[in-house]
UniProtKB/TrEMBL annotation, chain A:
Keyword Ion transport among UniProt keywords: no
PANTHER family for the chain: RURM1 PROTEIN
Species this protein is from: Aldrovandia affinis
Cross-link (Glycyl lysine isopeptide (Gly-Lys) (interchain with K-? in acceptor proteins)): G101
Family annotation (InterPro entries): Beta-grasp_dom_sf (IPR012675), Mopterin_synth/thiamin_S_b (IPR016155), Urm1 (IPR015221)
The name this protein goes by in its record: Ubiquitin-related modifier 1
Record pathway: tRNA modification; 5-methoxycarbonylmethyl-2-thiouridine-tRNA biosynthesis
Subcellular location: Cytoplasm
Modifications after synthesis and translation: C-terminal thiocarboxylation occurs in 2 steps, it is first acyl-adenylated (-COAMP) via the hesA/moeB/thiF part of MOCS3, then thiocarboxylated (-COSH) via the rhodanese domain of MOCS3.
GO-annotated biological processes: protein urmylation; tRNA thio-modification; tRNA wobble uridine modification
Keywords: Cytoplasm, Isopeptide bond, tRNA processing, Ubl conjugation pathway
HAMAP family according to UniProt: Urm1 (MF_03048)
Modified-residue entries (1-thioglycine), positions: G101
Leader sequence residues: none
TrEMBL record, chain B:
InterPro entries, alphabetized: CTU2, Rossmann-like_a/b/a_fold
Protease found in the keyword field: no
Organism from which the protein derives: Aldrovandia affinis
UniProt record similarity statement: Belongs to the CTU2/NCS2 family.
Official protein name in the record: Cytoplasmic tRNA 2-thiolation protein 2
Claim: NADP is one of the keywords in the record: no
Amino acid sequence: MAAPIALHLEFGGGAELLFGGVKDHQVTLPSQSQPWDMKRLLVWIRANMLKERPELFVQGHTVRPGILVLINDADWELMGELTYELQDQDNVVFISTLHGG
Amino acid sequence: MCQVDEEYNDQLEKRTVPTVSQRCVKCKEGIAVLIIRAGDAFCRGCFKEYFVHKFRAMLGKNRVIFPGEKVLLAMSGGAASSSMMSQVQEGLSRDAPKKLRFIPGIIYIDEGGACGQSLEERERVIAQLEPIFRATGYPFHIVHLEQIFDLPSSVLEAVSSAPERPEGSYKAAVDQFLHNSKVKNSCLPREGNQGPTVCDAQVQISCLAIKDTPNGTPALVVRHGQDLERLFASVNTLTAKEDMLQTLRQHLIVHTARTKGYSKVMMGDSCSRLAVKLLSNISLGRGASLATDTGFSDPRYGDVVILRPMRDYSSKEIAFYNKMFRVSSVFIPGLDTKALDKASIQLLTESFVTKLQADFPSTVSTIYRTSEKLHTACPAHDSDSEPTAKCLLCVCALDTKVEEASAFHATLVSEKLSQKRVPESPLVWSAVTADVTGQCCSSGGEREGGCGTGGGGCCTSSTTPVTPDMKSLLCYSCRLTIKDMTAVDSLPRYIVSEAERRKRRYQMKQEISEFLLDEEEDEEETS
Ligand SMILES: [Zn+2]
Ligand SMILES: [Zn+2]
């Protein structure tokens, strides 16, 4: 069993509009049998945080194309993207680069 | 096979932290923090250097901004233009000889009125932007889109620019500038050291529209709010709305630049943005203007040149730079916010390009490089002939004076053939104006009956005196946008009156043409 982990999530570039207009979120992921990776985080965000129009944030198993992801201030492309295993106190940022946010 | 796969997966699962952190491709030492272009990993330091250098290189390569020239930064509040502003600040604060030497100002167009935002929302946005602008120390202008209803029709004239400065004069101008600044260094505005009088005056101008709120009522007071609402309500599709907004915004920016003495305007279009613009403009029928619409330097207005210094940056680079180096930007919802992918041609193109880019990282750069190769085919310019006709709205060269064999003529012919003949208009049946009188009928081919006989609803709009005249003054793409409007008379006055003026001039010229001597004959006589 993986222990619950606390994360700081941040949404920007208009992505925050899908989360009630709030940019910064302090969340705690519950304890579960498998470790928390980015793929599971996205499922959790979709189920617990998205206020509207989930397809504007998640498409398929990953984020919508045009939304950038930073894990602890680094490009998630360098961290294994969906397979990155989240640690307690990690900082995850989602920035939309799409024109309408 | 299966076993191998499992083992591989196990390895991945166990790897909690990336064991070997990737190194930077440039310095080979720093730990990479982002991947740009097609797979190059950069460390923080090298990325900053690369980003800052690119801006200066873009301006240096093109050499269009002369020392001491006033340059207006068009700010949308978004990531790209905010990043552009930070690069200007960076460039102006540098030590000679790498210092940028122009005088910047800022313009923000508040288009909330066209996007259905409440006055309170717009006020909140402006309250967020103002401190950011003020912190730069540059003069700034906050202009509401409603002000298009107060524009003079001279905005639509392309003022011929000063004669091309000869090669080598750039260097001379820089030297002259350096010399002058040594002599009277104190008079020149320096970064963060702007004369307080200039700065205060500008702030006051921007505050005129915003009054104090003693009793909690909306403080923002804008005239023509309803006119703007009516204008955008009369445009049917989001595609045409976006195009119209873009055109009107441009007019306001150019007008402000002219009245405040700026000779250059910098727009923050990134290469990701321009790749989308390039493809969507082709779909919108703006193929003939691609070079001016997406190039670094856009001379269509003549005396005010539009520059796109961010066109070498991808939106990813910009977003990362802003995040890492704390460039603040404000997200302002626009017409396309939360809209479906298929809501407009522009959105659909954006979604197409971004999805392709996710799988093929060189998509944007490939499209972008194509745009670099585009040039406007200038008709041989001889000083005798009058300046080429420009589109009333987008001020690009008219693409409608083409040979009979073009696709454009084919479109006109088929439009004409599929139309019901309107008996009272045989006199205006010229190729160009043919489709105008029955405009609404052509769009609803099968339902001609109701349209023609009733004379109600849709046909009333085409009886507006302006409509038939307008079309011949527009480029192919702007015709499509205007065609999408239900009430052309909701257009701002400056457009309508300029259309009337051009039409009158054209008629007058027709009337007197037979009394004029041919230019050739004229020359023979004088020589
Ligand atoms: Zn490096
Ligand atoms: Zn046009």
